[in-house]
Structure formats: C-alpha cells, structure tokens
Design brief:
eight-stranded mixed beta sheet; alpha/beta; 6 helices; Rossmann fold
Length: 287
C-alpha cells in the first residue's frame, strides 16, 4: 500500500460507523466513507465538536451542516497550496491520499534530466497538475467541468504557478485525446483519474468498467517516442490493483518496455495507527 503520511495541514483523526473525522487546516470535518464499516468507540471529543458534517439523504445526495465553516480556506502540502471548498457529494476539492502520487510524479520529472510534458486527464482541481508543474514539467490539464478547471487555476496561482507552462482545457477527455493524436501532439507522461461514472460536456456517458480499456489504448497514441511514466487512479471498489497492472503491462509495457506496479492508496489514522484504504493506483515507468 502507498500511504500519504507526509501531510501537516491534513489529518485523518478517526473513522468508524461509515464516517471519518478529519482535520483540514484549522477545521474539523466529518464525512461519509464506505470503507469504514467497523463500529468502534468515538472517544475523540472532536467527533462531537466538528466544524461541519456531511450527511447523506435517504432519497439520494446529501448536505453539509457547516454553520462554523468558511466558504473556503487554504491548506499546504510541502510547497503546494490548495483551496479547500466543501461542495456537493461530500467532496472538498482535494483527495489527500493522492499526495503520495504527487511526490512520485514529481520525483520522476526532477530525475528525468530532460524537459517533460505531462497530460493530466480527468484532472479535477489540479493536485497532480500543480505538483508536476512545480517539479518543472509543462502540463496540459483537461477536465470536462469548467468549474473544476477554474478551481485548478486558483490552486496553481496559490502555489506560485500562475505563470507556469500549464494549458487549461475544458473538454471531454477522450475527444481531446483523439484530437491531440490527429494534431500530432505527444506527451512524455500521462496521468488519468477517471470517475467510476460520469458525463462529458456533450452528455457523453463514462462507465469505468466499460470505458477504461478502450481509453487506455487510445492514450497509447498520445505518448511520445520516449515516454517517462503513466499513472492511473481508480476509486471503483471492484477494480483491483492487479487488474490495473494487467492493463498497463498489456499495453504500455508491451510497446515501450518498462515496469508497472499497482497498490492500494491509504491514509494513516492518527488515533489508532491503522491505515484507511482509499482506492488504488497503477504506476508505469520506463525505468
């Protein structure tokens, strides 16, 4: 398991009964988590004095109770600064478990010894984008949601990257990749964080189990002749790390060589020393 254990402004304090208690900077949030199916004593008093709590509705969706919470605030990870904004569907705009992947991608870029271009697909609010740009790469950030791309720009500016070499694209990721292939644009690294289910700006339906394989094979056509790495993230419960490894070994490694490794991602729980699983990632690298 790859564990994001270098945070200072974020902390997973406890988890129990389908919920997790987190510290985001100076604020304490309670959010649902389907992995936390155990029911253990909630002895930490912050369970009962949080700044906000997200409760699911029996009819679908849910809402925040956040009377003691600002609309947004900032947290820091190493040299990166992110704008936290509690939003619908329990999210805050940041997946803190991805920090271990940000570090890995940044290390790959810094040690490459050459200019590196990165294509970040389903790029959300740009955690990987700002990490790669901070490491010196040129980045193309693509997401179908205009609001998420705008948020990514905010995070880049907050991290001192307002003038960095980042292209901000609002588009369906598959259609954008198809056009990049036709235009002859190639990238040394591809990052993808596809949703389990989603819709593109034109109503295109995305289902991970059906679309990931053809999308991965499509992305082979946008890799440069000397690619550096590929990173695939998955939050779909039924998709194991070994499945991701098989996919990259059958495509990227078969064409370019290199090596694939896939693991669960995890966040340490400060109250008991355990680790909460938070999806999976697969890393392919030429090294």
């Amino acid at each position: 398991m790859w564990i994001s254990d270098q945070w200072q402004d974020f902390e997973l304090i406890d988890c129990s009964g389908g919920e997790k208690l987190e510290r985001w900077g100076d604020f304490f949030l309670i959010r649902p988590d389907p992995q936390a199916i155990w029911v253990t004593p909630r002895t930490d008093e912050r369970w009962y004095a949080s700044n906000a709590r997200y409760r699911r509705s029996e009819t679908g969706g849910g809402s925040w109770s956040k009377a003691r919470l600002p609309e947004s605030w900032q947290i820091r990870y190493r040299e990166l600064v992110f704008n936290v904004k509690p939003m619908n569907f329990k999210h805050t705009g940041i997946f803190p478990e991805q920090a271990v992947n940000w570090d890995w991608a940044a290390d790959q870029i810094r040690s490459a010894g050459r200019p590196v271009s990165v294509l970040n697909l389903f790029a959300y609010t740009g955690g990987a984008t700002v990490a790669c740009a901070k490491a010196g790469a040129s980045v193309c950030h693509v997401d179908a949601a205009k609001g998420m791309v705008s948020w990514g720009k905010e995070n880049a500016a907050s991290s001192g990257l307002a003038g960095a070499s980042i292209r901000w694209i609002v588009d369906d990721c598959a259609k954008f990749v198809e056009r990049e292939i036709r235009r002859g644009h190639r990238y040394d690294a591809v990052i993808m964080d596809p949703p389990s289910y989603g819709r593109g700006p034109g109503g295109e339906i995305w289902k991970l189990e059906q679309n990931l394989w053809p999308f991965l094979t499509l992305c082979m056509g946008v890799l440069s002749e000397n690619p550096l790495f590929m990173l695939i993230n998955s939050y779909t419960t039924g998709l194991s790390p070994s499945v991701l490894t098989y996919m990259t070994e059958s495509t990227v490694s078969r064409k370019f060589g290199g090596h694939s490794d896939a693991q669960e991602l995890g966040l340490p729980v400060s109250s008991n020393g355990l680790v909460l699983p938070c999806g999976a990632s697969c890393r392919w690298t030429i090294k």
